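Comment thread on ticket #2218

A.B. wrote:
> Attaching the input chain for the structure job we discussed in standup.
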Amino acid sequence: MDTDAGIHPGEAIAGGRTALGIEFGSTRIKAVLIGPDHAPLAVGSHDWENQFVDRLWTYSLDAVWSGVQQSFSALADDVRRRHGVELSTVGALGVSAMMHGYLAFDADGALLTPFRTWRNTNTGRAAERLSAEFGVNIPHRWSVAHLYQAILDGEEHVGRLAHLTTLAGYVHWQLTGEKVLGIGDASGMFPIDTSTIDKATRGYDAPMLARFDQLASEAGVELTLAELLPAISVAGRPAGELTEAGATLLDPTGRLRPGVPLCPPEGDAGTGMVATNSVAPRTGNVSAGTSIFAMVVLEHELTQVHRELDLVTTPAGDPVAMVHCNNGASELNAWAGLFTEFARAVGADVGPSQVFHTLFAAALDGASDGGGMLAYNYLSGEPITDLEEGRPLFVRSPDSRLSLSTFMRTQLFSSLATLRIGMDVLQRAEGVRLDRMFAHGGLFKTEGVAQRFLAAAIDTPVSVGDVAAEGGAWGIAVLAAFAARRSPEQGLADYLDTAVFTGTSLQTAEPDPVDVAGFDAFMQRYVAALPVQRAAVDHVSPVQRGENG
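C.D. wrote:
> Ran it. Output below, let me know if you need it in another format.
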């Protein structure tokens, strides 16, 4: 345990005995400052949203920097209000962001095409070809799939490509000048060679790199992919320092001083694993926000390739099976917004938190199998169910009873259904066993509801804890602290167990047999009715910009 753990928060902040984590999530940019005991001292955030431009999901780089500046400013205000000191330095810093996607730059550092996020599913041809060539599953959202699709489509910018990275890698590069990625985030760009015994020296799979260069050449593009990708580092290693220009990017007021050490930038999946202490074999976690995904640390390699499963790594380099679903809680949020609008229309003074709590609580009394109702939460395409575009859909049988409780249970089941499809492959086809599954994210804030339904969906005990309340921003702050404070021989799992999660309070929900049977029945109808969802994609066109205001 850190000898500074008992220091006064104001003194810790003034003395730089802190760590700052910044995470770029799908709907919020969040900054969390932690003290020597890893407890949050202050928080700042900024809401943002992706845009659907030219049939691709994107965020502008201007929004990246304006958003992080507002988050840092809010954090500094929180420090001043709660602790009476100015935030001018931190002891360590880390950056995390949504994984995968495509950020392509030329030799001068200019962006070649708008940021293509993980949410895009236009890379089907590339993903299928690369999966066949490499003998591993290459998902639609991986950076290499985006690159190869751009090559297949003959996009002009490919010939000027000098550097390819993720959002976390881009922000880290601008803050430090270092083109580096944590191994967990890098594993969502290109396959990692996990056969190397020393995890600290693991890199991209060399034979696959060479094969990709050949495929590009066959398509008329000469490149060396290894020269375009960021360097790889593992948790606990230093990854540069905050430059003067980087400090100004975070804090235009000039109060933040340069020289702060940074840990390797990571993806939100990796920081979620840290935030739930799920980095050891036979542990896993589910993160639910705009997307929903499960990360399960493996004891051994899988027996075969499954398109539903990605093979990535923990921030320490251990192999992980990832079930990633593009669609999580966004459609659920839309329904909650509708109910909020109705409540205010009839004169009820209610806030979003009360609406969510009321709706989620109602779901507990709903029919265990959804009572003849079905919902598909597909705002975007969903590769696990072979859908390139999304059309949110609610349908019910004529004899179903349209009650609030069953409607809400159906909506919550829908948020977990695609995840269940992938977890079935992992648990049933591959026989992977889990000692514990942790859950975090906005879906699990209402106590005992989504947690209970997830336990039923995967027939596994599900725990939630108070430490992960600040999510991935707290997770990357912990990784920054780990890089700054760990002993040379200490591994990440041991650091989390002995220095971070001691005395953590957890609430565990065991699978209820009635819920398990109900979810199984719901899934049978859900899978059987997928052609209805596909028909909706084929026959319901998205509203174009300018239509209906």
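A.B. wrote:
> Thanks. Noting for the ticket: The longest helix spans residues 404-429.
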